[in-house]
Amino acid sequence: MAKKMWAGRFEKATDKAVNDFNSSLPFDCRMYKQDIEGSVAHSQMLAKQGIITQEDADKIKEGLLSILDDIESGKLTFDSDAEDIHMFIEEELTNRIGDAGKRLHTGRSRNDQVALDQRLYAVDEAKEIQSLLGEFRDALIDLAEENTETYMPGYTHLQRAQPITFAHYLMAYIQMFGRDMDRLDEAIARTNISPLGSGALAGTTYPLDRPFVADQLGMNGVTLNSLDGVADRDWAIELASFASLFMMHLSRLSEEIILYSSQEFKFIELDDAYSTGSSMMPQKKNPDVAELARGKTGRVYGDLISLLVTMKGLPLTYNKDMQEVQEALFDVIDTIKGVLVPFTGMIKTMKLRKDNMEKAALGGFTNATDLADYLVRKGIPFRSTHEISGKLVHYCIEHDTTLEKLSLDEFKQFSDLIEEDVYDAISLETCVNKRTIIGAPAPETVKAALSKIKGLENDGSSN
Predict the structure, then answer these.
(1) Which one of 121, 218, 351, 388 is most buried, by most CB atoms within 10 A?
(2) Which residues are marked as active site?
(3) Are 425 and 406 in contact (CB under 8 A)?
(4) Predicted TM-score (pTM) above 0.85
(5) Is residue 297 domain-shared with residue 370, that is, in the same domain?
(6) What is the pLDDT of residues 318-341, one digit of tens each?
(7) Dihedral of the CA atoms 77, 79, 80, 84 (nearest 10)?
């Protein structure tokens, strides 16, 4: 069993059961690159400040980079007896370069080292998520631009309500995911702050240049309180919070994709490459990508709650409970990345059944409000026109027809003010195209909104 770096205080070796329970290497080994990057920057700063020699710093850097190469090539495997990735790399470094390796930890604690590595890893992964999320949102934007005149019913209470376009429908989600992108931007900015130099909790007497290390690592600055530097995991909770909101939005979209691809709706057809079948029923084509995305939402919620509960009662500063932050955070990252790739492919390849969408918009009395508005323009108070329109809908239901199919004589049974122009007023095109205020579904309005979004994206914003 590898000797513990802190073994000087103890007379007995750690019990194997305790060692296995205590070890975080099986999951924190994924941070090997960030640990090495942080250690290289730390060692160069130590030499710059005259705390160690430049010769030792160069040996440390060379040794660390050789470890990185060997890990990535598979030549070096992780020692299962190591307590964590940080101890594993430091011990391997010392074995390779001797006493110079023992000088690496000068002015540093595992507390601030771990906090730094976690932040670096989270930023790297969050930027990858940022790219995947941008590609996904762009796929929605492209699909919306192709369907500004694809009519469909809008729903309330899952009942047909008013006619909209598929582009207008997608715009709702484009807005949601835009807010998610903004939240992720802000979370990355707050995560990308260096805690290194906080020490175990009270800094150090060595004249460290903390901003130099942060700059070398491409970070935005340094933490201003050493207690907070090692005790803070707000950034992890914030990333999980972003992820929970994103997954909630994705789950809502998933639910509608599942509904709209069913035989009951037949609004969309998913590509075979993004669907699965049944082992028993040969006719089945199941929307598994959307269903799994919907299911994994609960998993991300669980990770967020786990993080909040882990941190809620911890006294300052570091406590071993905080080791649990890593697994929840890693699971959030893995889940988001795992969902986005197939979901984007599903969106890019799905086909629309535009005929069924338009038929549903026509068949659900979605133009009843426009009929009421038409009568308002004839001088009747809205509450009265609402009642007249409702009675006409009831009449249509009893006679198995729709408003636009009624004769003018039938219309006049309910109001003498209804004239031939009613047919244009309640046509699907009029119902949609005359809704031109900002945020409404008229094709030109949606196109303008899409153009604005694309312009903002080019400027670096999302919404």
Answers:
(1) 121
(2) 157, 278
(3) no
(4) yes
(5) no
(6) 999 999 999 999 999 999 999 999
(7) -110
